[in-house]
Write the C-alpha cells for this entry.
Amino acid sequence: MVGLPLPRLLLAIVAAVTLLGGVGGLVAISWLDHNATEAESSDRLRLSSRLAESHVRALHQAGQEVLARIGEYYIYRPGGAGVRPWLATLVEDAPYIDAVRIQNLSGETILSTDDAAPLTETELADIRTALSQPGRTVIGILSSEAQLGGHAIVLTRAFSAPSGAVLGVARILVSISYFNDLYRDLIPPPGAIFSVLRRDGLLIARYPMPPNSPRLDSAAHPFTKFAEASEGVYQAVSVVDGSNRLLSYRVLPDLDLVVAAGLLTDTVFQDWEVRTQHATFLVSLALLLMLGLTALADRSMRKEFLLSRSDKENADNLAAALADKDVLFQEVHHRVKNNLQVISSLLTMQSLHVRDEVARNTLKDALDRIHSMGLVHQTLYERNLAANVDLGAYFGRLAEGLASSYGSGKGGVTVQVDASGTLELERAVPLGMLANEVLSNALKHAFADGRHGNVYMSLHCEDGRWRLVVRDDGSGIAPEPGRGIGFGLIRALSRQLGGSVQFSAASGGGTMVVVDFPA
C-alpha cells in the first residue's frame, strides 16, 4: 500500500486544523457572546424587579395611610353619621381607588361606596387575617368575576376603638390600572411580564393580566425557586401561559409578597442569534474558500504523485512537472497563510461584540434609583410628616448622595440645589426617581473629561404648576438624546406625574432638562 506523500499529508493536516479551529473558534465566541447577552438581560431584569418592588411598596404605604384615616374617621362618628359622603368624596378624589368598604367582625358590610357583592372565601380569609393582626395591611384581590369593574387589588386593615378593642376592618379596592399604567408606559417588548404574587400562591397583579386570576400552588414551581433565596434570576417555563422566560424576582417578606419581571428567551437572544448567523456565514465562506484552494492543491499534487510513478521515459516531463509543482506548492502555502490570517481577523472582529461593560454600570444605576426612593421615606420619618415630603431637604440630600457617589469632588464639580415646598408621597416617589435620573446623567456624562463645572437643580411651584430644572455647564447635549433606558424612564415618570419633559442646550454651553407638571 502506497501512503500519501509528505506535502499532501501536511496539506491535509493544515486543512483539518483550519476547519476545526474555525468551527471551534466560532462556537467559543458564540458561547461567550451568549453568556454576555444573558448577563446583560439579567441585570436589566434585576432593575425591573426593583422598580416593581418600589411600585408595590408605594401602593402599600399610601394604602396604609388611607386605611388608617378611614378607621379614625369612622370610630369618631357615632352610628357612622356623615361617613358615607366622606368616603364617596375620598374615592372621587383619590386616583386609582374604585371603592371603600367597611365590615364588622363578622364580615358583614357596614358601609360601602359601591354595591358590595357577597364576600368570597379569599376575601373572608384576608379579613380574618387582618382582624387577627391589627396594624398589618393585608394585600389581596377581588377577581373580575366578583368585581363588576374588573380585577381589583384589595388592601384590608383592622381598626380599633380608643379602648383598643378591634371593631372591624376598612378595605379599599384599587384599580388594576395602578399596576398596568406604569408598565404600559415603559413600552416593554412583546411577551415581557411584570407580576406580584402572594406567598400563599395568590396572583395579586400581572402585566399583561391573564383572562382569569389563577391561584398557584405555593408548594410547587415557581415558589420552590423563591424559597431558595430572597432574590435571583433564572430561566423557566411560566405556569400561567406556558412561555419560556428569563425571570428576575425579589421576595418581600414584610409584605408577604414576591415581585417578578420576565422576558421571553426568544427576545433575550434575538440579537445574539442574528450576530451568530452573520459570524457563521462569514466563517463558512472563509472555510469554503480555504477548502477549495486545498482541493485544487490536492488535485495538483495527486497528479504529480501519479507522474512520479510513470516510466523512466517520462523523466523529462516529470522533471518539468515537478518544477511546476514546486511553484504551485509555494503559492498554495502563501494562500493558506493569507486565508488563515483572514479567518483570524474575522473571528477577532466578531469577538468585539462580547466586550460589553453595560452590566457593570447597570447595578450602580439601580442602586441610585433605589436610594432616591429610600430618601423620600427617610425624609418623612425624620421630619415627622404624615404624607407630604419636604422637597428642599429631600433634594438637598439626593444631590449630596449622588455627588458623593460619582465622586464629583475629585473632578471639581459643584452641585447647587434650590428647592422648596412639599409634595404628597404618591408623586414624590416618581419625582425623586426622575430627579435621580436627570442629575446622575449630568454627573456621569457632562464632565467626562474631568474639568471643573457646575450643576444647578431647582424645583418650585408657581401658578399651580411645579417646574424642575436641572442645568449644567458641561460638554453639552448629545445629538440624539433619549435613546437609553434612563431617558425612557425619565419620560415615563414625567407622564406618570401628568407633565412633560424637555431636553435642550443651555445658554453658554451645557445641557438643560426641564420637567413641568401640575401641582
